[in-house]
Every structure is written in C-alpha cells, then in structure tokens.
From TrEMBL:
Keywords from the named record: Acetylation, Cytoplasm, Endoplasmic reticulum, Hydrolase, Immunity, Inflammatory response, Innate immunity, Metal-binding, Nucleus, Peroxisome, Phosphoprotein, Transferase, Zinc
SUPFAM superfamilies: CNF1/YfiH-like putative cysteine hydrolases
Main location: cytoplasm
Any one annotated GO CC term: peroxisome
Name of this protein: Purine nucleoside phosphorylase LACC1
Similarity comment: Belongs to the purine nucleoside phosphorylase YfiH/LACC1 family.
GO function terms (MF aspect): copper ion binding; hydrolase activity; S-methyl-5-thioadenosine phosphorylase activity
Subunit structure, interactors included: Interacts with FASN. Interacts with SDHA. Interacts with ATF6, EIF2AK3 and ERN1.
Reactions this protein catalyses: S-methyl-5'-thioadenosine + phosphate = 5-(methylsulfanyl)-alpha-D-ribose 1-phosphate + adenine; adenosine + phosphate = alpha-D-ribose 1-phosphate + adenine; adenosine + H2O + H(+) = inosine + NH4(+); inosine + phosphate = alpha-D-ribose 1-phosphate + hypoxanthine
Lineage summary: Eukaryota, Metazoa, Chordata, Craniata, Vertebrata
Pfam families listed in its UniProt record: Cu-oxidase_4 (PF02578)
Length: 438
C-alpha cells in the first residue's frame, strides 16, 4: 500500500506549464478516488524561483488544492530553489511519519534524473514506484504502477551535477544538537598523533536515534551515505584530518587485522599503518573503539571490539600486527579504550558470560544469573596486559582522575553517545580515529 505520493512539478515541460492547475487537479482526483479507504500523504514539489515569494506561489496553487477535503490535512506543497533541497525536505517529512513506500508522479523526462537523486538521498529502507504525470487518469489505480527499476544511464556530467547539488545543500544545513565535540586522551602525545573519539552532536542527521553526527550508513537505516559523508567532512574540518585519506575498519566481529599498503581483506576489525596523514577509524555504538599509538616507531592502529572480538583478542591482534610489521616494542605501545557499553548495563547469556569469567572472574557480575553483566573493557585490559602491554600504557574507565575519563558508558549517556543496546535497530554510530601527523 502506497504510504506517500510525491508529485514532481519542479521542472515541467513548457507545453504543460500553462495547465499546471489542471494537471494537479487531475492527479489529485486520481489519488483521492483510488484511496477511499486509506489516504496517503501527498507532497507537491515545486521550484521557488530566485526572488519569488513562497506565499505567492502557494496562492497560485490553492485553486487546484481547495476541493480535496480527504487529502487536506495530508497534502503539503514544498518549494525550494533546487531539486536536492525540495527532495531532502520531503525525506524529512517521510521520516517524521516513519513512511517508506512512496509513489512518485512526474514528467517522463524527469524520471531518470529523479531516480539519481533518490539513489543518493535514500537507502534501501524506502520503496519507490514511478508514474508518468501526463498519463494519470481516473481509471488508473495507485497500486499497479511501474516499480523502481534501471532507467537510462545519465551522462557522467549530469551525475556529477546531481551529487554536487546535493553536497552543496547538505553543507548549507546548520549543525544539530550543539557543537561538534571530540574526546581526546592525554595518554597519546599530540605532537605526533592526531586522534579522538566522536560524540553524537554537531552533525546534520535529524532522525532521533541517528541525531546528529551519525558516522555510519547501511541499507537498514534511514541515513544515506551522502549524509554520513557530510558529517565526516565536518568532523575532518574540526579535527584537522583529510577525509579523502580516511579508512574505517570493515567490521566482522572477529580478529582479522588489515596492514595498510597490503591487500585489503573483505572484512577486518583491526587496522594499522606507519603512513603519515592517513586516518584510521573504528566504529562503536556499544562496541569498543580502541586506538593504538607507538610514539617511538611512529605507528598507529584502530580496532573495533565487540564482545565476540574481545573474546577473540582483536586488540592484542592489532598490537601484534604493529610489532611484526613495523618493529614496534610492545612496551612502547599506548592503548586507549573509547566509549562503549559499560558493565553497569551490558548483559550476555550465561554461556557467553562463561568465556569472560575464564578471562577474569571480575569481568562478570551476577555470574549465576541467566544473563550476567559483562565488562568487556576489563577483559580487553587483562588480555592486553597478558600480551605484554604495560598497565600504565592502557587508558580505560579505571583511570584515577575521572576528569580525564573518556571511556563512558554509551547506554547511560544518551545525550552524548549512540547505543544499539539502548536505541534498537536504527541506531547511530560514533568512531575512534587516529593518524600520524605529517
């Protein structure tokens, strides 16, 4: 069932501009007649000319809109200077109402162009159907439309124009929920390394569980890659790294480590380099983002350590990669554990808890319960110390001076961090990042 209808009047052919009211009336009549039981939300997308007043254009369309009482509260005219701005506004409306099945009614010549915009601004969460504006009639049913498919390939210059237009619009948007904030460790020397852990403020992601500096996109979430790219650009500007030389681990919740400069595996949870100016990153939204720095050999690394990766020793695997590849001495390597779900909140089934109990009984609280509380931070520290990392070279939540603490519980601090444990499937993601300064 179609949940929303988008009528694209943004760039009508010249022969149709004089009959815009007639076209709109015909289209709305069809929607109303075919939606007697369930009325979809309707968005009419129009171009706001430079210097024109939005109110004047709305008054021009009012005669065409006035008679549709069943759609009255569900119909909105969206004016903008660009297609990107109009479509992004409509995306916000869809997301506010948690809508995902959309019919797009538009001129035939706009179809491939619109599909390109949609490909950039939406994810696989949404379903789109397309119908030609010229052929709308009373007999056509909203449920039997052409499904989204592969259209004609747009010229590369058109694709570049679309991407540039979207980027310019996203760059113009104000930051949400406060300033962009980066947490830094005093353990890692800032004369050699650039590093930090992000929080959730200062980006443009507007969906509550993703707001606002979400740094990960997937087919199951509503933040498209281009929005995440804009958040990353803002982070890079604030932190001082090059977003074009940015490498994030491809998580598999295991212990594989990618050595920068060698063949990249399909998935890995650790990454190391001795190249200057290359920023490494590990995500975290309850899982641990862990940063590694050797100021002697000038090498660094990042790892993503969930409960499975912790048990598999991904942090020590990252240390071992630095030792074997760059000749690091394990006693010189500094390790900082970033924000993650804490032992105050995190539970696992008893069978999984047994594995943490074997590492150290202090990693488990209420061990005899069906779902004991687990401390993946302590388990990480114990495994690192057993591998030869000096205790004083590890920073976690056991730090004496709590003013220096950056290993916060992500589930407890909803104002600062994303949490899968707390927010459910459509959760946002923060990162830990590090690079060697030029």
């Amino acid at each position: 069932m179609v949940e929303a209808v988008l009528i694209d009047l943004f760039s009508l052919p010249a022969n149709l501009q004089s009959n815009i009211q007639g076209l709109l009336c015909s289209t709305l009549e069809t929607i109303e007649k075919c939606s007697s039981v369930y009325a979809p939300f309707v968005y009419v997308m129009c171009c706001q000319r430079q210097g024109s007043e939005k109110k004047g254009e709305q008054e021009f369309l009012l005669p065409a809109l006035g008679g549709f009482q069943s759609l009255k509260r569900r119909l909105e005219v969206v004016h903008a200077l660009t297609t990107a701005a109009a479509l992004y506004t409509i995306k916000q409306r869809l997301d506010e109402k948690d809508l995902s099945i959309v019919k797009v009614i538009l001129p035939t010549l706009r179809k491939d162009l619109m599909k390109a915009y949609i490909a950039h601004l939406f994810t696989a969460v949404y379903q789109f159907e397309f119908e030609d504006l010229q052929v709308v009639s009373d007999s056509e049913n909203l449920q039997t439309s052409e499904p989204q498919g592969e259209g004609q390939t747009l010229p590369s210059r058109d694709m570049a124009f679309i991407q540039n237009e979207i980027q310019m619009h996203l760059e113009s948007l104000p930051s949400l929920n406060g300033e962009l904030t980066i947490l830094r460790s005093s353990l890692i020397p800032d004369d050699t390394f650039l590093h930090g852990f992000t929080t959730r403020t200062g980006g443009i992601s507007y969906i509550p569980t993703l707001s606002s500096c979400n740094l990960f996109s997937s087919s199951k979430r509503r933040d498209p890659q281009i929005v995440v790219k804009e958040n990353l650009r803002r982070l890079a500007n604030a932190a001082g790294f090059n977003p074009e030389a940015f490498h994030r681990v491809k998580t598999d919740h295991a212990n594989a480590v990618f050595i920068m400069g060698k063949t990249e595996p399909d998935s890995y949870d650790g990454i190391v380099t001795d190249q200057k100016g290359v920023t490494l990153a590990a995500p975290g939204a309850d899982c641990l983002p862990v940063l590694f720095a050797d100021p002697v050999r000038k090498a660094c690394g990042a790892a993503h350590s969930g409960w499975k990766g912790t048990l598999l020793g991904v942090s020590m695997a990252t240390v071992n990669a630095m030792v074997s590849e760059y000749g690091c001495n394990v006693k010189d390597i500094l390790v900082v554990l970033g924000p993650s779900v804490g032992p105050c909140c995190y539970k696992l089934p008893h069978e999984s808890a047994k594995e943490f109990h074997r590492i150290d009984p202090k990693c488990v609280r209420l061990f005899d319960s069906a779902s004991p509380y687990i401390d993946i931070r302590r388990a990480t520290r114990v495994l690192l110390e057993r591998g030869g990392v000096l205790p004083e070279n590890i920073q976690d939540d056991s730090i004496t001076d709590q003013n220096q603490n950056i290993t916060f519980c992500t589930a407890c601090h909803s104002d600062k961090f994303y949490s899968h444990f707390r927010d459910g499937a459509n959760f946002g993601t923060q990162i830990g990042f590090i690079s060697i300064k030029n």
